[in-house]
Amino acid sequence: MRGPELYAADLLPMILAVAAYAAAKRSTQMAAYISAVALLPLLVESSFSLFGGYAYYGSMGPGLWSVFDFYLEPFNAAFVFTVSLVGIMVAIFSAPYMEHRAEELGIKNTIFYLTYGLFLGGLAGAFMARNLFGIYIFIEEALIASLFQVLYYGYGDRVRITVMYLVWSHIAALLMLAGFIVLYLNGITSVPIPSGASLPASALYLALLLILLGSFTKMATLGVHMWLPYVHAEAPTPLSALLSPVLVGFGGYAIAVTALPLMPKSWLPALTWYGIATAIYGGLMAYVQKDIKRLFAYSTVSQMGYMVLALSLNNVYGLTAAALIYLSHGLGKAVLFMTAGYFIMHLNTRDIDRMGGLYGYNSTLAGAAIVGFLNLAGILTVGMLSEITLAVALTKAYLGAEYIELYIAFAAMLVVTGVYAFTTIKNVFFGPPRVEGEGPYDAALVAIAATALLSVLLLLPPMSSSIWANISAYAHSLVRL
């Protein structure tokens, strides 16, 4: 029982956001490092749970205070660990980037660092909240905080992009809230929902449809993905690195702890095909992009398809794969969006056609970015652990010659990911050099390289074996019997 520590760890980034705000008036670097340090307790708490297999619970008391009940088990700890680790690395990266962006705009960074801790504290709180309404309160806090970052520090028509983000994000949140209310009225108030729970058929179908539609909109899956390429491409790059998938992946977590334990098995095949279709569509759209941030945004659509597929398989391997996909994609995409930010700062471009031969420009940056792509492709990083687990989950759920079309589609999904990943590597880092000189070694590069290195280290035993064993041990309760 470590309730006080959970609350303190989650509140600290929000409290120190005020200190970061004050520091940003004089020093962007100081504000960035305060924001990074504020996330360390969350990283420590989630690491104990994820690597050690510990479970922690906290309660503020009965009645209305129960809305703020917290829990931390290895399954949701994988999400909190990703939020805090990526948040720390992005905060370090933001020191030179936000200084550059503030000079471009002629404004201070105060609002960015005030909202940074509120955003990540709210998001971590949404993953740790046990009460359905608590989940909604914390995710709304995260959404509102990130809105100000887009509005003040984004690119292009910032007002239009902010309104788009506001509308789509709140449609998603309100749909999930409506589903939570249906569950609450039928006696289900907290998560994770036991796999043996049941509701009247009409309430069950209504709750599931609302939660799924809200979660899919949050994840930007096929058909409700339109907002994501605009918002992620035009958001300030540190926020882009956090939106994808640290925020959008929350929809997958919501499905896992609220919808999946109640979902009829007859719904699962359609969900499987929907996940594959999303992954293939997102990958094909990523392949044809010339703006590197839009490419990474469509890559997120594709990776959310992987997550939906994992959840649809309704077994322990699938749930474990979903958490690992969130972790590997979080690290990999953070590396790639920060790399895009490095290009924006030092090359003043996002256009892939103006890039080429950049391995010679900065070999450390190129190596880290290649590792980021390897995370997405599932090669020699923690992404490899997630894809192997996903493949095992698929064979457990669909074993037999009658499923050959599904296996072909699954293979096509993997091929599409590999094609856009390695094509981008070739176009950006190899071939005739188009840029002269050498890229600087700064705090941004340190954050990029460290994040890439960690994604490789997490594949190695005993870390990978501990992560896998602990997540899978707690995934049993989420599988529909």
Q: Unreliable segments (pLDDT under 50, ≥5 consecutive)?
A: none
- Helical residue percent? over 70%
Give me the side-by-side strand order of the main sheet.
1-2
Q: Based on helices, strands and strand pairing, what is the structural class? A: mainly alpha
State the domain count: 1
What percent of residues are in strands? under 5%
Largest sheet: 2 strands, antiparallel
- Output the radius of gyration: 21 Å
Query: What global shape is seen?
Result: globular
Total beta strand runs: 2
Question: Given the structure, what is the number of helices?
Answer: 20
Mean pLDDT: 95
The first-to-last residue Cα distance is 29 Å
Sequence of secondary-structure elements:
HHHEEHHHHHHHHHHHHHHHHH
Descriptive notes:
- The chain is an all-alpha fold and 481 residues long.
- The chain has one domain (3-478).
- 74% of the residues lie in helices and 1% in strands.
- A two-stranded antiparallel ribbon has the order 1-2.
- Helix 2 packs parallel to helix 5 (110-128), helix 4 runs parallel beside helix 14 and helix 4 (74-105) crosses helix 20.
- The longest helix has 32 residues, at 74-105.
- The protein starts with a helix and ends in a 6-residue tail after the last helix.
